[in-house]
Design goal:
By secondary structure, this protein is an alpha/beta fold. The chain has 3 helices and 3 strands; from the N terminus they run H-E-H-E-E-H. It is 35% helix and 9% strand. The chain has a 3-stranded parallel sheet.
């Protein structure tokens, strides 16, 4: 999903995580704490988010994940900002 900053993307991701019990991957520990705190404020039970420095994920019980702020996750992985990217995933836009 896409949209401007503070339009509710992370809130929607938390709802999906709660409904499907999927882990959320975040760029760093600070963001993990933010997502976890937001889920608690929403009274939604989600698997504890995962920081990039905890990757790669091992174990057969995690089949797929959700990613919060993908551009920040890519920056953490690659070390430089992503200029452009492509995806075969369908994206949906959240409006303010």
């Amino acid at each position: 999903m896409g949209g401007s900053r503070n339009c509710g993307k992370t809130t929607e991701l938390i709802k999906i995580s709660h409904e499907d019990q999927k882990y959320i991957v975040c760029s760093d520990r600070r963001r993990v704490e933010h997502v976890s705190r937001l889920a608690r404020q929403m009274n939604l039970d989600i698997p504890f988010p995962i920081a990039v420095d905890e990757l790669p994920l091992k174990g057969e019980y995690i089949k797929d994940v959700l990613v919060d702020d993908i551009e920040d996750v890519f920056l953490s992985l690659v070390g430089v900002p992503i200029y452009q990217a492509t995806s075969s995933m369908g994206l949906w836009r959240l409006d303010n």
